[in-house]
Amino acid sequence: MSPSISLITPSYRGDLESCRLLCDSIDRYVTGYDVHYIVIGDEDADAFAGLEGERRRVIVSSSLLPPLWPLLKWRGRRYWWAPHLRLPIYGWHLQQMRKIAMTLGQPSERVMCIDSDNCFCRPLDLNVIASTPKLAQYVAVGDVNPSRPSHLRWWQNAHRLLGLNVPAPPGDDFISQMVLWERRTVMSVTKRIEAASGLAWWHALARVRHFSEYLIYGVAVANDPDLAERHERVSESPCLTYWEGPALDAAGLASFMCGLKPSQTTIAIQSHTRTPIEVIREVALG
After folding, report:
1. Other CB atoms closer than 10 Å to residue 13's CB: what's the count?
2. Contact criterion met (CB below 8 Å) for 188 and 228
3. Closest-CA residue to 78 (of 18, 1, 162, 12)
4. Taking the model in full, what pTM does it have?
5. Positions in the chain whose pLDDT score sits under 70
C-alpha cells in the first residue's frame, strides 16, 4: 500500500470565508493527498456544506466526540458543557480535541493540521511528505520559558497529561501554523493520557482546560525514543506568518510574501490584523 496523507482543518462559522480561501488555495496548489477534512460544530454544518467536494469532507463534531451542550456566549466566547465536566470548555478547546479525534477517525498514515487562516501560494506535493522515512516535526528549541506564561503552562500540563515528571524550563515549543502528525503516534499519545488519568483522553483534556494539542504531541515524541526515531526535528516552519501589525493592502502583502523562503509554500495572515480576505485572495491566488 502506498504512503498516505490527509489534511485536517478545524473551523467555525466565523472563519467561513477564510476557510473557503484555504480550500481554493489547496485546490490550486496542493497535490498528492487523500482527503481534506474540515471539522466543525454541528451548528455550523449548513454554512460549510457548500465546501464539500470530490476530496473534501465536512465532518461534524458529534460524529467524533461525545455530545456537549452549547451555552450562551460570555465575553464574546461560546462555551460548551456536559454533566461530567468540571467546567465549561470553549471553542478553542474543542477545535484542538477535534483535530485529535479526526486524526484517529480517518485512515491516512499521516496528516497535516492546517488552520483556516492559512493560504497556499506555491505548489506542494504532499506525496513527498507522505513518503519520507521520518516525519518532519517543527521545533522551536527553548522557546517555552517564563516570558511566555501561556506556553509554559501548556507545556507543563502536557507532561502531566502524559504521566511525565515536569522538568524545569526552558522547554521546546512545537506550535506552528502547519503541523504534521503520524496517526499511530496520536494513538499512542491518547492511550498514554488515558493510562495516566484514568479517563477518556478527551475527558482528561477537557478537565485540564489549559493545554495545547501540538505541545502534547511534541512532548510525547521528545520523551519516547521509539516515537522520536520516527520523527525528524526541523527548525523552519513551512508557513510564513503575519502575526501582528496593521491591515495589509495588496502592495503590503506582496512585499510580505517576498520574505517566503524557498521551502515555504504557505502564508498565514492572522485575522486580528483585519487584512481583507479579498486582498489575500487577489495576491495569493491572482
Report:
1. 14
2. no
3. 12
4. 0.96
5. 1
Read off the pLDDT of residues 85-107 as tens digits, 9 standing for 90 and up.
Answer: 878 888 888 999 999 999 999 99
The predicted pLDDT at position 1 comes to 63
Tens of pLDDT, residue by residue over 256-269, are: 999 999 999 999 99
Using DSSP bridges, classify how beta strands 110-114 and 178-182 pair: parallel, antiparallel or unpaired.
Answer: antiparallel
Residue 68's pLDDT is: 84
